[in-house]
Design brief:
The protein is mainly alpha-helical. The chain has helices at residues 2-17, 24-31, 48-58, 71-82, 93-102, 109-125, 128-138, 147-156, 165-173, 188-203, and strands spanning 37-38, 140-142, 145-146. The protein has one domain: Biosynthetic peptidoglycan transglycosylase-like (Penicillin binding protein transpeptidase fold, Orthogonal Bundle). The N and C termini lie far apart (41 Å).
Amino acid sequence: MLLAFLAPLLAIVAARFVAPPVTPLMVIRLVQGYGLHRQWTAYEDIAPALSHAVIAAEDNLFCQQVLGFDFAALRTQIEAWQDGDRPRGASTITMQTVKNLMLWPGRDPVRKILEAWLTPQMALVWPKRRVLEVYLNIVEFGPGVYGAGAAAQVYFGKKASELSAHEAALLAAVLPLPLKWSVASPSPHVRARAAVIERRVREIRPLLACAQ
């Protein structure tokens, strides 16, 4: 029982220093018939524009969080649920990194409980830049395309360090639905999202200190 309790924490500690070879989502997608394009890229070799765009799109207060939660957003979602409205979600980048690295996709209660338990452990053990580094290397940018290195090569034919602000915004724009929304052939909706993300990056510039 003690080993079962400590194993996830030990895995989090190990992943702070070692690049994860594969994630549950990658295995699931392989079984579903998708390919596996990934290329581990160190944080300093990823254009800052991408981390800025992802924070602007997914989690504006990432650099200010202590335990990996956005408590104000969580409170808003709980109130919406109590009022009978459908919660829109309050997932942070740290929560998404936990999910992508250690858990499985879906909204079932068991996964949510495990995510809530593991998130503060990751937030306390990993520095912010490590969270961003792992997230940007394992997140799904399209069918079978994981991480900044693979996405930059597949969609733009360049290195992750060479991504422009517009290209970074397009990548961030598809994150909610990477199997439906395309970077290669962006719909008007995706282009509009990318434009909003580019504008938001400029607006939240003071909140991006940990992503420099």
